Amino acid sequence: MTGNPSQVPAADGALRILSFLAAQRGPVAAARLATALELPRSTVYHLLGVLQQRGFIVHLPEERRYGLGFAAFELSSGFSRQQPLARLGRPLVAGLVDRVGESGHLAVLHGRDVLYLVEERAPRRPSLVTDVGVRLPAHLTATGRALLAALPPAQLRALYPDAAAFAQRSGGGPQTYRQLRQLLSAVRAAGYATESGDVTSGLASVAVAVLDHVGWPAAAVAITFAADAADERTWAALAAEVRTAAAELTRRISGAPAGSLRG
């Protein structure tokens, strides 16, 4: 059943606000929303209030701006649960594993965790904790770091408001927001994320984000290998292979071109 959006103006206005926010590099002011969407300011403030109550947006009082909230991430996760990313990504991850001879996976951001959608094990390689359906703290994993590095600063801060947000496994990885920002700055500079021993002792990973049509991190592709078996040249070669797979998945979902990580 279809209908004219003008027959349900509140629903149409709320969805337009969410779509507009999703296309921005960061939170925006209510006045800009009203101007861009050609809506009365009173209407915009009313809709923002409802969306904030439902968790779809967050208000940043110091900046007087609005950004996407945790419920919006849940919508993204719901999309992931319906498997289109897994279906598109599985053959690419399998091909990556065949080329490099190491285990590979595909994950999405779910709040402060990464959720693994695809896991392809290479023959005679160590067992991993990153099975399908497993969640791990995003700031400790290569996939999570690749995804977090592509978020706008305000969204990153909303995910990590205080020290309690930094879950630990082995005692490694960032433990403060400042440390996380420094780490993610290095990820953006390199074009790929790494971790070594922060999830499982002796194992390391390299990951690259897959970006959607507005440059938002839709997923991340990664491979995991024995940390002591890779020198600096090997890390770079593996990262190049992962980048190729991530770029192809980005293309398949009509995503943003490579190199469009958010600053």
Automatic annotation (TrEMBL):
Residues 71-255 form the IclR-ED domain. Keywords: DNA-binding, Transcription, Transcription regulation. Transmembrane segments: none annotated. Gene3D superfamilies: 3.30.450.40, Winged helix-like DNA-binding domain superfamily/Winged helix DNA-binding domain. Pfam families: HTH_IclR, IclR_C. PANTHER family: HELIX-TURN-HELIX TRANSCRIPTIONAL REGULATOR, ICLR FAMILY, HTH-TYPE TRANSCRIPTIONAL REGULATOR RV1719. This is IclR family transcriptional regulator. It comes from Microbacterium kribbense. The lineage of its organism: Bacteria, Bacillati, Actinomycetota, Actinomycetes, Micrococcales.
